[in-house]
Structures are given as structure tokens and as C-alpha cells.
Specification:
This protein is an alpha/beta fold. The protein contains 17 helices and twelve strands. About 50% of the residues lie in helices and about 10% in strands.
Length: about 450
């Protein structure tokens, strides 16, 4: 049996951790299964996700049997396995509900808390078990618990590691609801179906805004809300919601997104502030990333050839290669954004969504016309020439904007937006070449999908 089961019921996708004999302890196969489920959940037909466990446990964290031959590089294991899934949950553009059917301990507790809502069986419990073996919480546990409970209670709980049962967890605000254990699957499905019937884009942006509120000022949050509201008025669900209100009937939301000019979109969430020292040393600091990007590019060539053959035979690229190539193109956008001063933080080396102020939104894998696949290299040439020209524009703009940033500690908004436009077109070109989409790159500026904060 698979160690993670992925099932669908209507618009609800359920990810079930399926190692009941070890209380669904996490190993590499489980991490991969969760990642596959979250990738499948990007399908527009999925409008809500449930994560739960088989048997009498939700998840008790790391399977220590996997460490029997030595812990290895623990930090890298966290980055490669744990981080990608909790980040994917937070970045997933639809609600994720944890149906906590039993013990949620260690990283299993963090997994539950990373979800947007938690429904607990009366037999459930939450145990921050790290302190018992001389470790600190990981997988975002410190951030998530502090966010839910506040600093004082979070410190007391995480440093004592005591077990909190379902009723106490509800009293604390860790879970939204407690139900009898035999009713949990039905109730979790009901709640998921409730969310699935809502305007999915509005639910997602509420999730995004609540996360942003952790580190924005009130004025910045007002600006984010204004820009988000403006975007949502372009969705079909807004039109339906207003019509239903005026006609005094129940709205029939579809969750459809804005009809963007292109399925590859750039997300810009930058405050224009620049640290002068890193501006002066930007190319030197970026050298490790440029080296990794070069090596990744060489590796991408044979992978792209294999994917091209698959797409010709099946009329659809490989979902696994699509996910890998998405990370490659997104990482390229992160690195270019850093090099050309479009954002200030140092990027990670992973290419995961939601980890950098200049990010790339990529549509899920879809069928593609075989004739476009067969002639892709010829078709992409005009766009590739233009993308190369825009590379020189990027260099010139960064050179001039760098002097401004050194003098003022801020980057000109017009320069930032022009550079973002160039990177967006380049990303669409690479995505077209690598079969992430068969939509040709567009010059329409509306395809730059931007949420900006602190730009006043």
C-alpha cells in the first residue's frame, strides 16, 4: 500500500498519511507523497484540501528508524523534505484543513499547525516533543505556535513539551473544532466542501493577507488590501456574488481566477528598500547562485529532451518533470531578481514558491498541442531574441538604479517595475521552451501579477 493516499471527492482532495503501524511517522516516502498531493491540489478543479492520518495517529514526526544508521545532515533533510511541504501548504492558493485524528507530535504537530484550519477528534493530542530529546521545534513550529498562542504561552509550552489534549487545544485556539472520533472524517469533508463552495480566489487572498499581516505595518496592510480588492473585482465570482445579492439568491461560485493574459505570472512583493552594502557587492554575493544556476541549466537540457519526447507521445508533459522545471525557472527568476536589484533579500537555492519577494506563479501541467511541441525550438526563436535584448535592458537599468540605491537606500519604483517586466517576459520564454506551457510569451503588461507593499 502507498505510504500516502491521495483521493478526490468532488472538489475536495484528501491526503492521508498511511503508516498507521508507526502512527504515520515521517520518512522520505511520506514527504514525497505529501509533496505529490499538494502538487495535484494545484488543479483548478480542486478547491479545498484535507490532510489526515490513517489509524489512531495523525503524525508523530520523524521516523527515528530512518536515523538508525546516523542522523546525517539534519539541516539538509529539513530543507529538502520538511520545508518544501509546509511552504507548499502556505503557498497553496486554496484552503487546507487538518483533520487531526490522533496524536500530532513533533514535526507532525507543525504540519497540522501549518494548515489553515484544524478539526480535531476528541482523541487527538498535540505534543511539542522536541524538547524531550534535547532539540528545538522545526518545520516552522516556533513561528506557527508563537503566531497562534503568543510569545509567553508558546515559550512555556514548547520548553516543557507537555501533552495538550483536544479540548485544551480548542480552548487555546490551536484547533477550530473538536468532534467525536468516529465523526471526524464526515465533519472534515463537510467543512472542506463548505470551503470548496466559497469564492476560492477570495479565500486564498484572505489567507495570503493574514500571513502578510505578521510583518507589515498598518499602512502597508491597507495598501495590500486595496490592491487585492482591485484584483478580485475582476474575478467571475465577484460578478456572481453581486448578482446573487441583488437577486436575493444563493451565489454559485466557481472559484475561477482572473483571466490572466498568460499562465506564467510574476509576483512582486517588494518594499523598494535596499541595503547599500549588498547593493555595492551584489554581483560578488550572487556568484554562488550564478554557479548553481549554470549547473542546473546544464542538467535541465537532457531532462527537457526527455520531457519533449514524453509530450510528443502523450500530448502532455510529465507531471514530475513539470514540477522540477517549474522550480528551475522560478529559481532563475529569484536569482535574476536579486542580481538586477529587483529585490533585496538573499534568495534560497531551492526555487520553491513563496520563498522570495519576486516570485513566479506557474499553472499546473496541462495537455499541449503536439505540433507546437514538435516545432518548439523554432517557434521560440523570436521570443528568445527579444528575451536576450531585454537582458541588456536589465543590465542597464540595474547599473543606473544601483547608483540611486547607493545614494538613497531605496530603488526607483519605475526601474523596479521595468526590470520586473523584463524578467517576467524572460520567464515566460523559458517556460515556453521547457514545455511548462504552450502559450507564447506575451508583451501584455497585465500578465505581471504584482502585489506590492511599502511602495509609498
Amino acid at each position: 500500500m502507498p505510504e500516502v493516499e491521495i483521493t478526490r471527492d468532488g472538489a475536495v482532495l484528501t491526503i492521508t498519511l498511511n503508516r498507521p503501524d508507526v502512527l504515520n511517522a515521517l520518512n522520505r516516502a511520506v514527504h514525497s507523497g505529501i509533496a505529490a498531493g499538494l502538487e495535484e491540489a494545484k488543479d483548478p478543479a480542486v478547491r479545498a484540501v484535507v490532510i489526515t492520518g490513517a489509524g489512531r495517529g495523525f503524525c508523530v514526526g520523524q521516523d527515528l528508524q530512518e536515523f538508525s544508521a546516523g542522523a546525517g545532515d539534519v539541516a539538509q533533510n529539513l530543507r529538502d523534505n520538511y520545508h518544501r511541504n509546509v511552504l507548499a501548504i502556505r503557498a497553496l492558493e486554496k484552503p487546507v484543513i487538518a483533520a487531526v485524528n490522533g496524536a500530532a507530535a513533533g514535526a507532525g504537530m507543525s504540519l497540522a499547525l501549518a494548515c489553515d484550519a484544524r478539526i480535531a477528534a476528541d482523541s487527538a493530542s498535540f505534543v511539542p516533543a522536541f524538547i524531550k530529546i534535547g532539540l528545538v521545534p522545526d518545520s516552522g513550529g516556533t513561528w506557527l505556535v508563537r503566531r497562534l498562542l503568543g510569545a509567553a504561552r508558546a515559550f512555556e509550552w514548547l520548553t516543557t513539551g507537555r501533552r495538550v489534549d483536544a479540548e485544551e487545544a480548542r480552548a487555546w485556539g490551536l484547533v477550530n473544532e473538536v468532534v467525536p472520533a468516529d465523526e471526524l472524517p464526515r465533519r472534515a469533508q463537510e467543512v472542506a466542501e463548505l470551503f470548496a463552495a466559497m469564492p476560492t480566489r477570495a479565500v486564498w487572498h484572505t489567507k495570503r493577507l493574514l500571513d502578510a499581516a505578521e510583518d507589515t505595518s498598518f499602512e502597508q496592510q491597507l495598501e495590500l488590501e486595496a490592491r487585492t480588492q482591485s484584483e478580485l473585482t475582476r474575478t467571475p465570482d465577484f460578478t456572481e456574488g453581486v448578482a446573487a445579492f441583488l437577486e436575493k439568491r444563493d451565489a454559485q461560485f466557481t472559484g475561477a481566477d482572473v483571466d490572466w493574459p498568460h499562465p506564467i505570472r510574476l509576483v512582486v512583493n517588494d518594499d523598494l528598500r535596499r541595503w547599500r552594502l549588498t547593493v555595492a557587492l551584489r554581483w560578488l554575493l550572487a556568484w554562488p547562485h550564478l554557479t548553481v544556476l549554470t549547473l542546473w541549466t546544464y542538467l535541465a537540457v537532457p531532462v527537457a529532451i526527455v520531457n519533449w519526447a514524453i509530450a510528443l507521445v502523450r500530448g502532455r508533459p510529465s507531471a514530475g518533470i513539470h514540477a522540477w522545471m517549474t522550480r528551475f525557472v522560478r529559481y532563475q527568476a529569484h536569482v535574476n531578481a536579486y542580481v538586477y536589484l529587483i529585490a533585496d533579500p538573499y534568495p534560497s537555492f531551492r526555487g520553491w514558491q513563496g520563498t522570495y519577494p519576486v516570485d513566479l506563479a506557474v499553472a499546473a501541467v496541462q495537455n499541449q498541442a503536439r505540433w507546437k511541441t514538435a516545432f518548439r525550438i523554432l517557434l521560440v526563436l523570436p521570443a528568445y531574441v527579444l528575451a536576450t535584448v531585454l537582458g541588456y535592458v536589465l543590465l542597464a537599468v540595474a547599473f543606473l538604479g544601483g547608483f540611486f540605491a547607493l545614494a538613497t537606500g531605496r530603488y526607483p519604483r519605475g526601474f523596479r517595475d521595468l526590470s520586473a517586466y523584463c524578467i517576467r517576459y524572460q520567464a515566460q520564454t523559458y517556460a515556453y521552451l521547457l514545455l511548462l506551457t504552450d502559450r507564447y510569451p506575451t508583451l501584455a503588461s497585465g500578465s505581471a501579477y504584482q502585489f506590492e507593499r511599502g511602495t509609498q
